[in-house]
Specification:
heterotrimer; A mainly alpha; B alpha+beta; C alpha/beta; A: two-stranded antiparallel ribbon; two-stranded antiparallel sheet; 6 strands; globular; B: alpha+beta; three-stranded antiparallel beta sheet; 14 helices
């Protein structure tokens, strides 16, 4: 298994100590001036300096720094890239190129960097024929500068609270999901490895908070249509929570743990099948991903469909179907408030894809690649390993591949009606997921697979 | 929950034109519906009384702007019925060819609107991509992609360019292959079946009673196609079979239109092969007296023009009968008992063009 | 006998010659009859039930300055024939029976004829304006409603200096 690149708590702690050291410099200066003018050493402000640079405050600031790093990781990297992937991919499905504003569209860069012979080629192409990555940034800037309107008769506190609920619960999802062996926020170190005994449960709980926010948003907007949209969305999301949970329980029964770190560690081993009384058989070249386990195939299908429904993508996007309800429950939101709600729908899809990756595709485990050993400045004399293709990279690749499958499905099929969605959830997916729990229990009991 | 009236429109992204549909809902089920039209009323019948006969073709083009040649053609046939004019053979075949090209373009526009109604946004771009080819053909023969002002009383405005048959054949061969892809995207998706089969059902008797004609009627099992029953122009000499489906629901209406596109391709190729050489236009008289009417199979159903002349060089009265006008009247029948989410599927499958409905 | 001859014969047999101001064959399979407004419902009912005219194609209102005419185009899909009925209505009393009880398709067509020409169809379930706004006061298609070429275009300069 390849190694982790980002050691979140270590780096946050280092950054926090650095920042607090900078903060303590002027205090030390004042202290030195005070000592020069007659106070005895170590000086009147020595205690304050000690508190500022001490482990308590540093630990607190480290957590704040870690959360902010995670926030930037989620939005700047994942959200923008995923929006770009979706727009380019569905455009290609529709036989067109899609968004094309890139760095080469900016006039300044074209005039300065264009004339450079070899490296300036990207800046000499037609200006609207770039990669398109900056388009999503431009859309975000556009939303920032729009007027934020609150409808007159809207329930003001609820109206403002709804995006906050949705955004905070989704960010909590991002906090609860570990992104590699070093990049995690929820868990503890035990015997040198991170553990989080109830991790999957926390993730599922965070998933379930958003329907509340959606219902509040639909109700508080004082609009017949958003009320309809909000109620449909709440009905859909709540009824799809059950197959989500049940299919994950099937996998948890087989794996025996709710700990995402343990699940990924299980899947980093080579592929082994238990054949009951005949012993175990190992397949050398494949990892022990749960997707290769036939007992869990039904659970995988149910989980995949349910995550698409939870992320409100086509074919399950009737709550915000433009065809009937304009924008559904988000109609009355404008400006960045709308951007918040809209963007966090994508983040929920990413979190769903991350969940599928952890559960079935081995999470952040990747094949072993070369590692570069560099001197470890924190403990002189030892070496710090830097993996060439770190765990975060493999996890991101898996998330994006799963997301591409979401986009592919979403833009090739029509959407289904709300009562058909609920029929599917209650009458098809729940029995299937119960069946998969049964299969998993049998397999675990008889030590098969 | 009590019954309440919901307005879908007039400002609505998916009603394909400017009209209002008021539906009375009881929870999610539709109890009654009431279409409110007239937002696009332009006073056509009054204006046509002060324009000369030929100049009205510019107006009739813009009745249904998606399918303009078929409307002007119907008006020219009505005027020829009043003036007792015989059109040369070549003109008849040219009219048939351009009518069928326009019919395919109109049906492709319908397909491009029907897909996004159901959530299949890819269909919009695919159908419009094929429609571009047909608009290019129409531009080749008549000079414009839309509102072409091509039919004339007494024939057509100009002859087809020299290699027209070759280009038509190329486009049609390519289109048949692509149409198979479009059908696959729609029909192999079980979600599409679930959304349209059994939705918006109307029986044959109710459809005839309410005046529904065209593809909407052929979807109920009635083999009524005016190109066969009351043929005009060169249709008596062409062999084709109207597309009929039994079901009366949105799926049947979709299927009928797709089959009609294939039939139109055959008709075009047949007509181009059989087209004789000769004049493409005769000069009509300037004044005429009397009354006459003519009906054609427009892309959406039975279009009828009733023209009365009183000896002046302008008509005394022109009456425009639009097929969508009657289909909309039957829409409440199709919608009773369905869910709110089905309204868009039903309205999309009826193929509403507000321009001809409101005149 | 061809279908148009059959239709004329049966109409004459049922109603007698006096009911019709004129009867004729327009072209292949199309018959045209002209009647007074009092006979409209009976003739239409006979045509629908006995002669199988299941479909009403359109209802037109015409303003001949001394009279109105309500023109009906009926179609029989089964027999593949059309009948055009010109029903004469006096100009000062524009009322005529509605045929909505026979064909539901006449509903919208009669509303349009009322809306644009002002002919009142007695017995129509919901005779309100359909194309024009509900509070519009005039009947535009009448010949005494000015045409665009009759109305004088007054430029803004002529209206009070503004």
């Amino acid at each position: 298994m390849t190694g982790a690149l980002i050691d979140l708590f270590g780096w946050s702690y280092a950054l926090a100590s650095f920042v607090l050291w900078l903060v303590s410099l002027p205090i030390a200066l004042v202290n030195w001036v005070a000592m020069q003018t007659g106070a005895a050493s170590p000086g009147p402000l020595a205690g304050l300096i000690g508190w500022v640079t001490g482990p308590g405050l540093t630990g607190f600031v480290a957590v704040i720094v870690a959360v902010n790093i995670l926030l930037l990781w989620a939005t700047l990297l994942h959200l923008l890239t995923v929006m770009w992937i979706e727009r380019k991919m569905y455009s290609r499905l529709q036989d067109r190129r899609g968004i094309m504003i890139g760095l080469g569209s900016s006039d300044i860069l074209r005039r300065t960097l264009g004339p450079i012979p070899l490296l300036g080629r990207p800046f000499r192409k037609p200006s609207h024929l770039g990669t398109g990555f900056l388009q999503t940034v431009a859309d975000g800037v556009k939303l920032f500068q729009k007027e934020v309107i609150t409808p007159t008769n809207a329930d003001r506190w609820m109206f403002h609270a709804a995006p906050v609920i949705i955004a905070s619960s989704t960010l909590f999802l991002f906090v609860a999901i570990p992104w590699s062996d070093g990049f995690w926020l929820m868990g503890s170190m035990r015997d040198g490895v991170p553990v989080n005994p109830w991790g999957i449960l926390v993730i599922l709980g965070a998933f379930s908070v958003a329907p509340l926010g959606i219902l509040i948003a639909g109700w508080a907007s004082n609009n017949k249509y958003t009320l309809l949209g909000g109620m449909r969305a709440a009905a859909q999301l709540m009824s799809y929570e059950i197959p989500l949970l049940l299919s994950i329980i099937a996998l948890v029964v087989l794996a025996g743990t709710l700990d995402p770190f343990q699940l990924v560690r299980n899947q980093s081993q080579p592929l082994t099948f238990g054949l009951g009384p005949l012993g175990r058989i190992q397949v050398p070249f494949l990892p022990n991903w749960y997707i290769f386990n036939p007992v869990l195939w039904i659970a995988f299908v149910v989980l995949f469909v349910t995550v698409i429904a939870e992320a409100e993508r086509i074919p399950f996007d009737i709550p915000e179907a433009e065809a009937e309800l304009v924008e559904g429950w988000t109609t009355e939101y404008s400006g960045m408030r709308f951007g918040l709600v809209f963007g966090f729908k994508w983040l929920r899809a990413i979190a769903g894809a991350a969940l599928i990756a952890i559960l079935f595709f081995g999470g952040w485990s990747g094949p072993v690649f070369m590692t570069v050993w560099t001197p470890n400045l924190a403990a002189p004399g030892t070496q710090y390993p830097i993996p060439i293709l770190p765990q975060e990279f493999w996890f991101t690749v898996k998330i994006y591949v799963i997301f591409i499958v979401f986009v592919w499905i979403g833009w090739s099929v029509p959407r289904i009606r709300i009562d058909q969605i609920l029929n599917l959830g209650w009458k098809t997916l729940i029995p299937l997921s119960i069946l998969s729990i049964l299969l998993a229990t049998l397999a675990r009991g008889f030590r098969w697979f | 929950m009590a019954e309440m009236w919901i307005n879908m429109g007039p400002q609505h992204p998916m009603t394909h034109g400017l009209w209002n549909l008021r539906i009375k809902v009881d929870g999610e089920t539709i109890v009654d519906a009431e279409p409110e039209i007239g937002y696009l009323h332009r006073g056509y019948e009054k204006i046509m009384e002060v324009r000369e006969f030929q100049k009205n073709v510019v107006l009739t083009d813009r009745l249904c702007y998606v399918s303009s040649i078929t409307w002007s053609h119907c008006y020219c046939l009505a005027c020829e019925a009043v003036m007792d004019l015989d059109v040369p053979e070549r003109a008849k075949y040219l009219r048939v060819v351009t009518n069928e090209l326009q019919r395919i373009a109109s049906h492709l526009m319908w397909l491009a609107a029907f897909g996004p109604d159901l959530g299949l946004l890819t269909a919009l771009l695919w159908a419009l991509r094929e429609r571009e080819l047909f608009l290019d053909l129409i531009q080749l023969i008549s000079g414009a992609r839309m509102n072409q002002n091509y039919p004339r009383i007494g024939g057509v405005r100009n002859d087809a360019p020299p290699d027209f048959e070759k280009y038509c054949r190329k486009v049609i061969v390519h289109f048949r292959k692509k149409l198979a892809e479009h059908e696959m995207v729609f029909e192999q998706s079980k979600l599409f079946q679930v959304r349209t089969v059994g939705v918006g059902r109307i029986s044959k008797e109710a459809a005839i009673d309410w005046g529904v004609t065209g593809p909407n009627l052929r979807a109920c099992g009635a083999a009524i196609d005016l190109r066969k029953l009351d043929p005009y122009d060169a249709y008596p000499q062409l062999e084709f079979a109207p597309a009929v489906e039994h079901g009366g629901d949105s799926y049947a209406r979709y299927k009928v239109r797709v089959e009609e596109m294939k039939t139109s391709c055959d008709i075009i190729l047949q007509a181009l092969k059989k087209m004789p050489a000769g004049p493409y236009r005769v000069k009509p008289p300037r004044r005429c007296e009397g009354e006459g009417f003519r009906r054609t199979e427009d892309s959406r159903g039975e279009a009828l023009f009733y023209v009365i002349g009183d000896g002046d060089d302008r008509p005394y009265r022109v009456k425009i009968r639009s097929p969508v006008f009657s289909s909309i009247a039957a829409a409440p029948i199709m919608m009773r008992g369905s869910k709110v989410a089905d309204v868009v599927a039903i309205m999309g499958s009826i193929d509403v063009c507000v321009g001809e409905m409101d005149k | 006998m061809a279908v148009e001859g059959q239709i004329i014969a049966r109409l004459k047999e049922r109603f007698g010659e006096g009911t019709f101001r004129s009867m004729g064959i327009v072209r292949d399979r199309v018959v045209k009859i002209a009647i007074e407004r009092k006979d409209l419902f009976a003739v239409c009912q006979f045509l629908k039930e006995q002669l199988g005219m299941e479909h009403i194609t359109s209802i037109t209102a015409v303003d001949w300055r001394d009279r109105f005419e309500s023109v009906y185009h009926l179609t029989s899909w089964k027999r593949n024939a059309m009948v055009q009925i010109n029903a004469r209505i006096p100009h000062d009393d524009p009322h005529i029976d509605s045929v909505v009880p026979l064909w539901n398709g006449a509903n919208f067509h009669e509303r349009e004829a009322y809306d644009l020409m002002g002919i009142v169809y007695d017995g129509h379930p919901n005779l309100v304006r359909i194309l024009l706004p509900k509070d519009f006061e005039f009947f535009p298609l009448r010949k005494d409603f000015p045409q665009e070429v009759d109305r004088q275009y007054v430029s803004r300069r002529k209206i009070g200096g503004a």
